[in-house]
Batch of 2 targets.
Target 1
Amino acid sequence: MEEEMEQVRRYFSSGRTREASWRKSQLHGLHRFIGDREDDIFRALLRDLGKSPVESYRDELGILKKDINAALDNLADWMSGKKIKLPLVSFPTTAELVSEPLGLVLIISSWNFPFGLSLEPLIGAIAAGNTVVLKTSELAPASSDLLADAIPTYLDSKAIKVIQGGPDVAQSLLHLKWDKIFFTGSKQVGRIVMAAAAEHLTPVTLELGGKCPAIVDSLPTWDFTRDILLKRLVSGKFGSCSGQACVGVDYIIVQENFAPTLINLLKGITEEMFGKNPKESHAMTRIINAHHYKRLKNLLKEDGVEASVVYGGSMDEDALFIEPTILVDPPINSDIMTDEIFGPLLPIITMKRIEDSIKFINSRPKALAVYCFSTNDKFMRRVATETSSGSLLFNDTILQYAAETVPFGGVGESGFGRYHGKFSFDTFSHEKAVLRRTSLPDFWFRYPPWNDYKLEL
Ligand code: NAD
């Protein structure tokens, strides 16, 4: 592996990947891969996760195609130097910021969006002119095999390598010296990545998870618009990889007196989306593996938690299926309310006053996203100014992931660094300050010996 990395590093030194033509050809290659192999990608996602092709297109392929096109359209602008103003003291110097590639970068990705989370950072890394090693997730083997098999035929295999394997392989890679590590995954492994990066002072971006709350303050009174917002909320949980999404809704907060109405509405919309027998629904993704199935089952079986189930709750270990499940006020210190759920279990926490949700959110680690459904401008302003999260979205869920003009990333324990669109380009670049000086004018007092200005103590 080390020898192979050395070859990639030497290729970077050749300067080929810095050329705009190389970057463009790689972006075109990636676009061709997604277009030519669309059917294979759908099948791989179906095999790994039971994902519907519509969900796969909505959350992965569609976003990737759009973001590759945006990178192609904007590449010349992103690569061009940006003039900087200078203070008078440096007159008549000119200065600009020039983005240069970092070198050889390592991308470690996760299984829940195995194409999106591998290729989205790859777009930024190649647009910025880097060579790349991509370590895919062993938990989505069909997707990982397809990437490892196809990427070398669509992209420059001297510059971009796909490496398959689990934690052992990731650990061996982490011991090597990189110019940047971009990691998507859990907090626990994020710590391992950061410790390994410290060894070589390698910069890291950590795209981690956490518990994303959705505050439901109020909904529109007109049924039609109310149901649209409810669909966005329910889809942000059960309709996005069955809750196995880093920006998915983890739990809902609602005021006590609105809770019975909201719960009834949520039950109705959930049934509308997944039917009376969700196990038969093509829109439900399955749980990724037996380990995660057991983890979710344990969350549900904890003392006092199962008793709080008001909807769903059925499971099938052989099919790795868990029904969309709604719980009301499970014990606040139970694991389901302290650990990231990452599955189709939806706790609803009721509060006397909806304003208390702000204090509750602030008492927890900072989330990757906070969602808030409200018709009250004053309350929305309070949520915006008094809570902190990677992103904040009013009256919808997950949309921020799909907009390449919006920086995507966490804060606090949900990670640091940001990407998508130009933010990806910046994440994989060093912005170098380049100053140009003329020989005149100059000032004698800049230089020693300053003999006439001696100060005695
Ligand atoms: P994970 O941390 O278990 O695995 C992520 C990657 O790290 C995989 O490629 C895996 O092979 C590797 N890995 C696992 N154990 C390792 C170890 N001991 N040493 C080195 N590498 C190791 O996470 P996961 O199960 O793939 O994903 C779930 C987590 O990722 C959730 O917390 C979720 O919120 C988060 N996530 C975040 C984002 C985001 O964009 N912020 C997206 C998806 C998932």
Note: Residues 108-112, 117, 135, 137-138, 166-167, 170-171, 184-186, 189, 192, 207-209, 246, 340, 342, 368, 415 surround nicotinamide-adenine-dinucleotide (CB under 6 Å).
Target 2
Amino acid sequence: MKHLTHMEDLGVAGLQQVIRQALSWKQADPGKHLADALLGMLFFNPSLRTRASFEAVMARGGGSSLVLESGKGAWAMEHRDGIPMDGDRPEHVREAAPVLSRYVDLLAVRSFAALEDDAQDEADPMMRAFRAHATVPLISMESAREHLCQGLADVLTLAERFGGPDGDLKGQPVTLSWAPHRKPLPKAVPNSFLLSAAAAGCEVRLAHPPGFELPAAVMQQADDLAAQSGGSVYVSHDQSAAVAGSRAVYAKAWGPVLPCAGDAPAMMQAHPDWQVDSRLMAKAAGDACFMHCLPVRRDLEVAAELLDSPASAVVDQAENRFHVQRVLVDMALKSFK
Ligand code: CP
């Protein structure tokens, strides 16, 4: 049985397999390849794209899905062991995961970062608890550490825009740039873009102001993946220099290194000049695309004029969530037969 929650579950070969299959199924639809399969989705946090795209995958593939929202209709859930459950969470993952596994063929969970301590979020306690106690394959719909489906959809988008045969992206320069926001946001999306682009062999340029470093373990994993794929990763505090000549510019807001002694919302608002706009894009390659996972705050993280320009790939990225997720669902179900 294969859980698909982190890049470590796929590695370089697995990522290539997903991208190749997704490209192939975009040409020749697989039809009702999920006939009779039932996906159980458990959300701890809101969603537009993730929920809609997974429901679409199951419906179009001939399967079906059920959706539960923890704390809203379904019980609030505890993942910690060895503590008396005297708080506001009456259900434990130790029972919930195996119980749900008796009803469905596949589970999917979304649980965001707690945003108190990067080391705690990096350990991914809720997703790891579901991995330990689910008895059917588990797919992440975004966890504290990673947003695997988003990272794969992003690489599929890059592959379609400027990949070689089989979507080959080796050596292609892409920039992931920090962007301003009104409050600290999780690091799962930047972590996953970094890991996926490194595994795809890109020259990944990570640009952020000092104090917004991504977790050391994620940076190390990205370096290891790049070493296997022929890619590279480097970090810059100079946004313009990082973007120069890039084939893609990915904007994303994320919070400062945590725990943080300063005023985190104030830190998020201290670099308004990092907003990504057409003037910055002009430094990238002539055919460069602009990327964001969505939802995006217009004229805060990204200039509205750039989002509305032909360079923007954000809707393609969102569509590609469907295409990579139907491959992941298929892979996970086959791993359980
Ligand atoms: N990008 C993404 O995961 O979107 P949702 O939060 O709307 O699911």
Note: Residues 314-334 form the longest helix (21 residues).
